[in-house]
Amino acid sequence: MVLKVRCANAADLKAMIACDDYAPAHPERGCRIEEALLAGDCLIAEQRLQAAGYALVRHDFFGFEFVEVLMVHPALRRLGVGLALLQACIEQCQTAQLLTSANASNESAERLFIRAGFQPCGWIDGLTPGDAEIVYRVECGAANIRSAG
Predict the structure, then answer these.
(1) Sheet containing 119-124: which strands, arranged edge to edge?
(2) Total domain count for the chain?
(3) What's the pLDDT tens digit per position in 35-91?
(4) DSSP 3-state of 57
(5) What share of residues in the chain are helix, strand, coil (percent, to 5)?
(6) Above pLDDT 90, what percent of the chain?
(7) Is 149 part of a structural domain of the chain?
């Protein structure tokens, strides 16, 4: 599969929502995508000019970047789209670490994060009753890190 990962823009909104199986029942997701697009905080993966998946990255999670949403079109899962998006997030990371999270029950996400070089570093109880949120981290290249001045 040939993928192109690039910064998303406002013209990508409908395509991003269309590849997200969570968004139709949760209109707040579309609003969050739109906010992230306006802030320049989205990457999109394309296959043959069609949206294959996307990542939303926050820049304010305890001083680190955080992959808030990683979504792959349901028909394209387990084909490398998520890994390509995570690798692009790591390459573009401007902090010493990049973090992300997933429910403990989401074994597919855990395998993907480990494959991309992330390691579990903690958990948050109570967000989803009975299913802790596991936090993962990966070191980012020193060449990418913003200077403190």
Answers:
(1) 4-7, 42-47, 50-61, 64-72, 97-103, 133-139, 119-124
(2) 1
(3) 999 999 999 999 988 999 999 999 989 999 999 999 999 999 999 999 999 999 999
(4) strand
(5) 35, 35, 30
(6) 86
(7) no
In a domain, 8, yes or no: yes
Look up the CATH number of the domain holding residue 25: 3.40.630.30
**Is residue 40 in some structural domain?**
yes
Task: Quote the pLDDT of residue 149.
Answer: 35
Rounded to two decimals, the pTM is 0.91
**H helix or E strand, kind and range, residue 122:** strand 119-124
Residue whose structure tokens are 């579309």: 30
Distance (Å, whole) CA 58 – CA 32: 11
Helices (H) and strands (E) in the chain, counts: 4, 7
Other beta carbons within 10 Å of 119 = 10
Q: Would 61 be classed as within a structural domain?
A: yes
Which residue shows structure tokens 């001083």?
63
The token pair at 52 is 């294959």
Please answer whether residues 46 and 73 qualify as being in contact, where contact means their C-beta atoms are separated by less than 8 angstroms.
no
What confidence tier does 131 reach under pLDDT thresholds 50, 70, 90?
Answer: very high
**C-alpha dihedral, 6 to 111 to 56 to 17, nearest 10°:** 90
Domain range enclosing 124: 4-144
